[in-house]
Amino acid sequence: MQQLSTLREEVTAWQELASRSGELAELWELAEVEGDDELLREIADEAEDLQRQLARMRLETLLSGEHDRRDAILTIYAGAGGTESQDWAEMLLRMYLRWAERRGYQSEIIEQTEGDEAGIKSATVEFRGRNAFGYLRSERGVHRLVRISPFDNARRRHTSFALVEVIPDATGEIEIEINPDDVRMDVFRASGHGGQNVQKNSTAVRLTHVPTGLVVVCQNERSQVQNRERAMAVLKARLYDLERQKQEEEIARLRGEHVVAGWGNQIRSYVLHPYRMIKDLRTGWETGNTAAVLDGDIDDVIESYLQYMVGR
Predict the structure, then answer these.
(1) What's the predicted TM-score (pTM) here?
(2) 110-132: per-residue pLDDT in tens?
(3) DSSP codes of every residue in 147-199
């Protein structure tokens, strides 16, 4: 029934778009006959809104993956490089939070580990909204930053790396059985915001899945029980994604395709010195407007990836 409801909404949206387009075309012809310049300008403005809506809807047609419609859990890890990479990880976190704000998505930081001097060592964020995972799956991989370091008194150029991991949040939908004996739980005081209860009591939870080594931390909720439940849901999602990756790698091996282990390929370069350019190394998409991208304007690069995947 949920799938049926979603499909009906999509069909209705396209029908309304077609109807509105037809009405504008008729109104334009009438305004031209009458020579009503003011009405023509109003129609032109509405036509631009229509074009933007069409672009968004066309983009959604590229989201046909099994989990694309679900919410997403995104984790950022600072790479080697100390403070420089930790600052880069925080810049990426801001970029994705700003992107979610632009799209009207809800975002919630589940866990955040502060850097030694600045930035963050890691952060896990849940994004809730239609097709959140479908869009954000384009961000999986290593992101590279080249800039003059603000932490280097000699003003030298530094290269930093951060890893972005994205998995679908299928809470309540994933059939994963976890043996309680395979999970080690540690509790500690939360280091982030949350009030006195969070700060003074051991409410934060760290779950370690011993067989795989997966570690999940949750410290955003006010009670230890709530944090454990949320961490367990994230752990299930990561175990599900791990199993899916294994299946894909096995299929690729049987086909004779090259399978890359570890962090994965570098997907995008952000160069702020000696020139300004952001380039996606998978699709060839690039822009010189680095400020806009780092402020969350990443829809164009996401669309280039989705179109690239459709053409493969």
Answers:
(1) 0.74
(2) 989 999 889 999 999 999 998 99
(3) EE-TT-TT--EEEEEEEEEEEEE-TTT------GGGEEEEEE---SSS-HHHH
